[in-house]
Amino acid sequence: MVNRILLFLIKILNPLDWKDVIRQLFFFGMSGVIVLLLFFYVYLPFSTNHGEAITVPDVYGIPMDQLDEVLINRNLRYEINSDSGYNSALAPLTVLKQFPLPNSKVKENRKVYITLNALDAPLVNMPDLTNGSLKNALMILTTNDLKFGTSQYVPDLAFNAVLIQKFEGAEIKPGKKIPKGSIIDLIIGDGYGNSTLESPYLIGLGEEAAQLTITGSALKMGTIMYQSLDTTVLTEMDEEGIEIETKIAVKPGQVVKQHPAPGNPMVIKETVNIWIYQPDTTKRNP
Questions:
Q1: Is there a single domain that holds both residue 233 and residue 170?
Q2: Which of 12, 62, 119, 219 is the most buried (most CB within 10 A)?
């Protein structure tokens, strides 16, 4: 045994064998480096698709039956969550949420988790919109995922105050269950109440003066027309109930006719139309 060890040491210490040892060590070292390079830069990238990422598409709002075309064809998988949500702006069974989010970078065959919009709208309690402002009612409707339909102004001293709330044409009481996304119509006060007044006397006034009189009477200026006749006929009742006709002639540029006629009952903001006498104009209405 001792002899063998001595022979091995003599062999190592032999100057001629040192060159072989160094050459072999260098060979083994280079081989190890090459193996490591092949492992990290060839084998691992090939086996893990390193550097090859897929961009997750945005599938929000896409129907469920189109997911195969959008995701599977991009080498992605998907799974539909058992829980669903609801958004009244989306059709039933369309994508409501997804994870990973759109434009995320993922590896091939990654699973995308999908949440669908519910088939049936969940029910919510109808809120109380009355006795509040229109602006406040719109905020409450949005918060409860309800939609504003139409508005109708009626005489009431409270301007833009919600008086009645309607669903499907009928008044609906607060607390009643209705589907999310339902359309709610509102009856709103016009701020004028039930005030009534008479149509002002405009015959013989100039166009500008007539407009000022109309707006100053809380009425609205309607259509201005022109005619070549300078005379109007006004009808009124005397004390005995007999109609009396009065013919009134006007000068060019003055009101010769109006509707409603002077003295007729009107409500605030109602429209008054006038006719101006213009004998020499192309703007003529028979």
A1: no
A2: 219
